[in-house]
């Protein structure tokens, strides 16, 4: 089981704002910001829930390939709200909210590209 995951972003301030907006409908919030002075080299922001950051974005140079990150949504309405918030925050459409029966009967997801091109998804596996 994963404890946390991190990706690099080209503009920490812009990406922090994007993820604050996009992840709020999923109950994921900004929990911690770390500066170079605090860490001796790393500058980043940790997002999570229930007192634990588990998704980190760090200032750096994103790789030539992009990551895919999927966040669990409590219901299909939250998937829709994630998509709308992410687009409003500057994300680009990469798959409208809807069923993806090729994965399984109840797979309901939405996909957006973050400011660095990472594919970010919200998914609900429950029936409507």
Q: Choose one word for the global shape.
A: globular
Output the CATH homologous superfamily.
2,3-Dihydroxybiphenyl 1,2-Dioxygenase, domain 1
- What is the number of independent domains? 1
Determine the CATH topology: 2,3-Dihydroxybiphenyl 1,2-Dioxygenase, domain 1
Low-pLDDT residue intervals, each spanning 5 or more residues: none
| CA radius of gyration | 15 Å
Strand order of the largest sheet: 1-4-3-2
Strand content: 35-45%
Biggest sheet features? 4 strands, mixed
CATH architecture call: Roll
Q: How helical, in percent, are the residues? A: 10-25%
SSE string, helix = H, strand = E? Answer: EHEHEEEHEEE
Distance between the termini: 27 Å
Q: Please work out how many helical segments DSSP would assign.
A: 3
The average pLDDT score comes to: 95
Task: Give a count of the beta strands, DSSP E runs of length 2 or more.
Answer: 8
Q: CATH class, please? A: Alpha Beta
Structural class: alpha/beta
In short:
The chain has 128 residues and is of the alpha/beta class.
Notes on the protein architecture:
The protein has helices at 12-23, 36-39, 76-88; strands at 5-9, 29-34, 44-49, 52-59, 68-72, 92-99, 108-113, 119-124. The chain has one domain: 2,3-Dihydroxybiphenyl 1,2-Dioxygenase, domain 1, CATH 3.10.180. By secondary structure, the protein is α/β, with parallel strands linked by helices. The strands form two sheets. The protein has a four-stranded mixed beta sheet with strand order 1-4-3-2. Strands 5-8-7-6 form a four-stranded mixed beta sheet, with helices on one face. The radius of gyration is 15 Å and the shape is globular. It starts with a strand and ends with a strand. The longest helix is centred in the middle third of the chain and has 13 residues, at 76-88.
